[in-house]
Fold this protein.
Amino acid sequence: MKALFLAAEPGGATTLGPVAARLPGAPVYASSRAAPGFAEFGVRARVLPDPSGPEKGMGVVRDLLERHRPDVLVGSLLGPPETSLDRAAARVLSGLPTRHLAVLDSWMHLDLRFDRRDGRFVHLPDIVALPDGFVFQEMVDLGFPAERLAVTGHPFFDDIAPHPRSGVGSRPRRLGFLLQPLAGLVEAGHVPHPGYTETEAVRLFFEALELAGEQLPEVEILLREHPRRDSRYEIPAAFRSRVRVSREGGGWEFTRGLDAVAGMSGTLLVYSFLAGQPTVVCQPGLTQTPDPNILTRFGMTPNADTAGRLARELTAALTDPAYQLDETARKARDRFPLDGGNCGRILALMEDGRVRR
């Protein structure tokens, strides 16, 4: 089997990197944003420039197919429809004998990841590998043909291990907030407005910290910028000396160093919850349906959408050693394939293209 990997966005590297690492020698191509993520898995990605439009992107994909003549192209499902190499691959491969396996990177905006014509999905990959049964049912409900869907588990789940928690008395504790560039993405028309942006979420985060006051242990506050673009937010003057903003290294590497993780709807929140890290969701003023965060969409964690609720959740996350280790949380984690075989199932799909039920 000759495989070719293609990733347009950083999430594609996290999704495809574990699989590519298990298939040494297969060519890997990525945008400049995604390429560093592959290095975290020991995989070298060749950098491609972002195409200026759909035709340019399709031309890049055709050149790769001509150069490598793969049996299967493995990609993710990310990026703007006009300039995403992932979308370009789906358009070029539609109807060609080269198989197209797309690995879904997350649980957000499922209906925006595929082209539509007259209300129907078009240019579909031969198979879409899904992280869990939750998404399978949602995709079917959206009208996606079930015969093209396979629940494999997210490849990165194979690299998630239970997170050892430090003792409650440890000083200082590390609390992180995962930023997203929602304001810019909404303005550019890439995602619908969820009812809030990172500006409001960060403001509520600091309000909650102030409200919690002495209930919180001594804490180091870290904000994590998205690798693709800057977020828009303000750090209150009273907190500026206590806050560090990070963009270096991988997102998961950053998150693993935290005692508690807070954020809006990013995939890293799901990883953290599955690893048993105290994970807090904050989506103030959420109006989007379905809820873009699967943790709150399916009742695995509450949406701490007021200062009071968020203060209580952050306090519990940093002081209660049993936080999110209860039976409800355990059963929620059991709904996800965490048996270490997710990459193997992806490789099997790449080999023979057969969806097994």
